[in-house]
Design brief:
Blueprint: E1 5-10, E2 15-22, H1 26-38, H2 46-62, H3 64-75, H4 79-102, E3 108-111, E4 124-130, E5 133-137, H5 151-159, E6 163-166, H6 172-188, E7 196-199, H7 202-210, E8 214-220, H8 223-235, E9 242-245, E10 251-254, H9 256-275, E11 287-291, H10 294-308, H11 318-332, E12 338-341, E13 344-345, E14 351-352, E15 354-359, E16 380-386, H12 389-396, E17 402-408, H13 411-414, H14 421-428, E18 432-437, E19 475-481, E20 502-504, E21 507-509
Parallel strand pairs: 3-20, 5-6, 5-8, 6-7, 8-9, 10-11, 10-17, 11-16, 15-16, 17-18
Antiparallel strand pairs: 1-2, 3-4, 4-19, 12-15, 13-14, 20-21
Helix pairs in contact: 1-7, 2-4, 2-6, 3-4, 3-6, 4-5, 9-10
């Protein structure tokens, strides 16, 4: 039986563009994983790894016009957005090259033997080593930054792990183009091209997570798909780490004082954030607690005006469009739910942004309105109007885990002079991996202190997929005890010829500022 073809589809029309590949068979998955496994040793040299990451960034920049054209044809995200995403992607690759060269991620710790302790200490030398082959599952909404050349791939290669990427079916042509660039970068720095391999197909994704030589996986997508793969990873004879980003409501709490002080500004800001990219950001603010009363009314009026000015747009594919239209219809039909701006179908191929509103009291206990506490992917948010701080606390206590949580405060509250403000921030902290004050969650800076993750179902682990510490997902610690110096890796010898940052007998050596 011939393998099923993989087609590139135009989301603006729903029509196939061209066949770009075929779905990988079980034999092809096995061959890809074994090729990656054989390439592990070639990634051992950190200097070469850093060169690979920088070369990949340079080649992507050089191919930028073709990459952006291909991605726009398959995602309808537009050249402006995709130009920014490509810049973010190449900056991320270069940032991980710096992480590799700095080598602090190795977390080297040396405790010399101390027979005078009770009990005595032997000589102990600890560092982190790469896990092995990493399976990466591309996201639909970021065809570059969370796809073939994205953060999971960059951080895995930085850790010394070869990668097999399962392409997202929404942008197979873009995936093929980016994979060819990364493989060319590998060859240019003297590495086997199989340090990165691309496969296509739903069954390929399942086969990949089950392959005995795959040591870890990174996923960005839906709760349903991610949970199925997470369960498969855990059910293996030898379970593997599965770092999945599944879904997030990204709640926003607007205090009454904040609404009273700047209702119009907050309403406009919310509209811009929840409609950005047709509401297809994983950090879209999908649930808002806003005050009842005059200040809250002004905020809703501002939100209504701003959303009304948003033109219908194209989602990433027609399946997502249909799911959005059905999802908002089901939510709008719930009792006591209003739709000041009705979200839904904007045309045969487009959607219109909007928002739903209801009394927050309806969400303080379990009931049919719990559907509103589930993510609806697309340009829609839910505004729950609260009448007291107790209602805020009751609703927050029922929310699932999130990538972000946002607090909009008045000037006096931000200054810490209003009782209860710190307590409200503390209530949000258990809900998310990133807590914002007086900002909007869309946009995730690729910075060393960034954390892009959160309690389940936002993610399946406590790790981040953005920022320097994303590399930690693909490493495991190993300690050598009483091992002769001649047998130790250079990084663990007393001489430290490579000059890596370390902690020796409790003292920092070689760290910035140490």
């Amino acid at each position: 039986m011939a393998a099923a073809p993989v087609w590139s589809v135009d989301p603006r029309t729903g029509k196939p563009r061209e066949q770009v590949a075929h779905e990988a068979t079980a034999e092809e998955i096995d061959r890809a994983v074994r090729g990656a496994y054989a390439a592990r040793g070639a990634l051992a040299d950190r200097t070469v790894r850093a060169a690979l990451l920088r070369t990949a960034a340079d080649l992507l920049d050089a191919s930028g016009e073709h990459v952006i054209e291909a991605a726009d044809a398959e995602t309808a995200l537009g050249p402006v957005r995709l130009t920014g995403e490509l810049a973010r992607t190449t900056a991320q690759l270069r940032a991980f090259a710096e992480v590799v060269e700095e080598a602090a991620f190795l977390d080297v710790r040396i405790d010399h033997a101390d027979p005078g302790r009770t009990p005595p200490w032997p000589d102990l030398r600890r560092w982190k080593v790469p896990l092995g082959v990493v399976a990466v599952y591309s996201a639909s909404n970021f065809p570059l930054a969370f796809s073939v050349p994205g953060g999971d791939t960059a951080s895995a290669l930085a850790a010394g792990c070869p990668v097999v990427v399962k392409a997202h079916p929404d942008h197979p042509g873009t995936s093929e183009l980016c994979a060819s660039v990364l493989r060319r970068a590998a060859a240019r720095v003297g590495l086997p091209e199989d340090v990165l391999t691309l496969v296509h197909g739903f069954e390929a994704g399942v086969e990949l997570v089950r392959h005995p030589l795959v040591a870890a996986a990174g996923f960005t997508g839906s709760v349903r798909g991610g949970r199925a793969l997470f369960d498969a990873a855990a059910a293996r004879p030898a379970p593997i780490p599965f770092h999945g980003e599944l879904g997030s409501l990204n709640p926003v709490v607007i205090t009454e004082a904040a609404a009273d002080e700047r209702a119009e500004q907050i309403g406009a800001g919310l509209a811009g954030s929840m409609t950005l990219g047709e509401g297809q950001f994983c950090t879209k603010p999908g649930f808002v607690l806003a005050p009842a009363g005059e200040a809250g009314d002004r905020l809703v009026t501002s939100l209504t005006a701003a959303v009304s000015e948003t033109e219908p747009g194209v989602m990433l594919d027609h399946r997502m469009r249909d799911a959005f239209v059905a999802g908002v219809r089901e939510r709008a039909a719930l009792p006591d739910v209003d739709a000041p701006i009705t979200p839904g179908a904007g045309g045969e191929h487009t959607v219109s942004a909007g928002f739903l509103s209801l009394p927050a009291e309806l969400l303080t206990k379990a009931g049919p309105h719990d559907l509103l506490l589930e993510e609806c992917f697309g340009p829609v948010t839910v505004v729950a109007r609260y009448g007291s701080t107790d209602e805020i606390s009751s609703v927050l206590a029922r929310l699932p885990g999130n990538l972000t949580a946002t607090l909009q405060l008045a000037e006096a509250e931000s200054a810490g002079t209003v009782p209860g403000t710190a307590e409200l921030l503390a209530e949000l902290t258990p809900l998310a991996g990133r807590v914002l004050v007086n900002g909007w969650p869309t946009g995730v800076a690729v910075a060393p202190a960034q954390h892009h993750g959160g309690p389940y179902p936002a993610t399946t682990s406590t790790s981040t997929s953005v920022g320097a510490t994303a590399i930690e997902r693909w490493l495991r610690p190993v300690t050598y005890q009483s091992t002769p110096a001649a047998l130790l890796p250079p990084e663990l010898t007393d001489e430290n010829p490579l000059g890596v940052p370390r902690r020796v007998d409790g003292h920092a050596e070689g760290y910035a500022g140490a």
